Amino acid sequence: MSTETKKFADSAAVASGFAADFAEWVAAQGHDKITVALSGGSTPKLLFGLWASDYADKIEWARLHFFWGDERCVEPDDSDSNYGVAKALFLDKVQIPEENVHRILGEADPDEERLRYENEVYGHVDIDDNAVPEFDLIILGMGTDGHTASIFPHQSQFLKSPQVCEVAIHPETAQKRITLTGPVLNRGKKVAFLITGGDKAEVLAQVIKKEGDFANFPASHVEAADLTFYVDEAAAARL
Ligand SMILES: O=C1O[C@H](COP(=O)(O)O)[C@@H](O)[C@H](O)[C@H]1O
Q: What ipTM goes with this model?
């Protein structure tokens, strides 16, 4: 298992550092149908913008299949939709076949969608001997409460769920979400956290150093074989 922390000056530098590593990694993959689970929220927006502006013709997008680590149960054109954000910022701007985009249907019944999406994942992603999907790359973020994907501290049982996806509930808004579970995050062949901002510094330090309240932060339970934290100086202030 290898864990690395890459520190950058600010959030823009995190996006460009990750984008450069990503382009190199895609080019080095010896197979097509490279499966990537995207994160949502605000942090990856700079990355998505950069993919559209600087990498549209530098990456063979048709080799990639995009999935999501989590989705909010809203319409795809809702500003809260993780898919909607990615679509507006880069999917509509790069040459990627529609069938390579495997969105979670946030507008569908969550319990039915959880099962449909699980089958979608099984239809395209390698599995291990225990039928756990092995994405080539999973991109994750972390909330100020230590949640990752949509595994929140109050639903930490999802870290050990035997299912591919679970229906999560946001602790403050009660918004329903669909999230990949802990075993799937841990089986990612490569996992990258993108974490920026001083408001995450204290939690990030506990997550990385495994100190203090770390056990209560879902992000600290992601233990993939190849794990990299891309952080800015503000988020890294307590490391
Ligand atoms: O709700 C979510 O939160 C996390 C962190 O989001 P950010 O806005 O702090 O970057 C994100 O990784 C997750 O995908 C998202 O749905």
A: 0.98
